[in-house]
Amino acid sequence: MGRPQEADGEAEGLFGVAELVAASAPAGAREGRAFRYGPETARLLRVAEIHAEPGAAASWRGRQIIARFPGARLVETGSHWRIPHLHGNEGNVEHWVRVKRETLVLGERSSLTVRPNGRSADWIAPGLSNGCAMACAYCYVPRRKGFANPITVFTNVERVLAAIGRHIAATGPKTEPNQCDERAWVYDVGENGDCAVDDLISDNTADLVHAFRRWPTAKASFATKFVNPDLLRLDPRGRTRIRFSLMPPDDSRLLDIRTSPVPARLEAAGDFLDAGYEVHFNLSPVVVRPGWRNAWGELLRMMDDVLPRRVKEQAAAEIIMLTHNEDLHGVNLGWHPRAEDILWQPDLQQPKRSQNGALNVRYRTPVKHEAVESLTGMIAERTPWLRVRYAF
Question: Lowest CB count within 10 Å: 349, 364, 367, 373, which one?
Answer without folding.
Answer: 373
